[in-house]
Amino acid sequence: MDLQEIKLKDLDPKRFIEEKTNEISFIVGDEIAVNALSGGVDSSAVTMLGHNALGAKLETYFIDNGIMRQGEPERVVSIFKELGVPIELIDAKSEFFNALKGLKDPEEKRQAITDAFYRDVFVRLVKESGAKFLLHGTNYTDVEETVAGIKRQHNILEQLGIDTQEAYGYKVIEPLIQLRKSAVREVARALGLPEEIHKRPPFPGPALAARVIGEVTPERIELVRKATAIVEEELQHTGAFQYLAVLHEDRVTGIRGGKREFGMQMEVRCWESTDAVTGTPTQLSFDVLEKLGRRITEEIPSVVSVTYNIAHKPPSTIEAV
Ligand code: XMP
C-alpha cells in the first residue's frame, strides 16, 4: 500500500484543516459536490470540511437506510442544523431492505449495502443535483483492512480498483484517507464539532445490518435496534471503546409465562481497544451483565437468550458481520 499515514503525533489539526479545505475548494472549483452524513466522526468531519470549503456548493444528505439506531437520523440532522449546516434527510429504507432481501452471506450483505448506497441511491442524488464530486470519509484503517482482505469496508472503492467515474458517474474526494480514527477525532474537534460527535463511539457503515446474523429484514433490524438502545444506555458510562448487540440466526428453546417459546438469541459485545485493529472484551461486572440480560429479555419479548462475548480480536472482529 503506497498511501502514507499521518500519525496522530505528527498531526497539526489546524494546518491539516487549512490544507484540506484549500484542496477541496481547488478540486471542486465551480462544480457541485455531494456527501453523505451518517453522524459518525468520519462523515461528520468531512461534512464540516466540505461545508467550510464549498458552502452552498456542497449538498449533504443523511440517507435513512432503515438500518440506523433509534432516533439517529433526526438527531444527527438537528446537531448539524444547530451548527448552521443544512442536511437533507432522504428516505431510502425500501431500496436498502429490497437489496438485502434473502441474503445471508456477510460479504454479500455488505456488497448489497454498498450497491444500494453508491449505485442506486447516490447515483440518483448525484444526477438530481448535477454534482461531479463525492466527498467521502474513508480513513486509513478502512483501506488497510479492505486491502488486506479482512473485511470489505462498505466505503472502499478506488483502492479495490473501482473507477467511480466509470462505475457511478462521479469522482471521489477522500480528505481523511491518511488518518486513523484517533487523528480524525482531533480534526473533528478542531473543526468545532460537539463532543457528542468527536467522541462518538465507532459505528459501522453497514449500521445495524453488521449486527444481524442471517437475513436482514425490517423486523429483525427492529429487534437489534431495541437491544442496541438498551446496551448503549447501560454501558455508556463504562468508557469502553465500543459496545453493541448482535442478533443471532439460530433460535433456542425458552419458557415464558409457563409456555415453551422457540425464541431469539441476542449477544452483547463490549470492547477495549485504541484503534479497532485489536480488541479485548471489557471486564464488566456480573451485576451489569445480569441487568442487561434481564432488560433485553423483558423489553424485547421474543428474545429468550442473552450471551456476552469473551473472545478477543483477533480472531474475532468487533462487529459480527
Ligand atoms: P471489525 O468488525 O472489522 O470493525 O473488527 C473494526 C471497526 O470498524 C467498524 N466497522 C466499519 N466501519 N464501515 C465502517 O465505516 C464498515 O463497513 C465497517 N465495518 C466495521 C467497527 O464498528 C469497528 O469500530
Key attributes of the depicted protein:
single chain, 321 residues, alpha/beta, 5-stranded parallel β-sheet, 5-stranded mixed β-sheet, 10 strands, binds xanthosine-5'-monophosphate
Explain the overall architecture:
- This protein is of the alpha/beta class.
- The chain contains eleven helices and ten strands.
- The strands form two sheets. It has a five-stranded parallel beta sheet, with helices on both faces. Strands 6, 7, 8, 9 and 10 form a five-stranded mixed beta sheet that branches.
- Strand 7 (252-256) and strand 8 form a beta hairpin.
- Helix 1 crosses helix 2 (41-54).
- The chain is globular, with a radius of gyration of 20 Å.
- The mean pLDDT is 93.
- Residues 145, 151, 153-155, 202, 204-206, 210, 242, 276, 313, 317-319 line the site of xanthosine-5'-monophosphate.
Concise overview:
The chain has 321 residues and is of the alpha/beta class. The chain has helices at 13-28, 41-54, 72-82, 93-100, 106-129, 140-147, 164-168, 181-190, 195-198, 218-235, 286-299; strands spanning 33-36, 58-64, 87-91, 133-135, 171-173, 242-247, 252-256, 259-272, 280-281, 303-308. 41% of the residues lie in helices and 17% in strands.
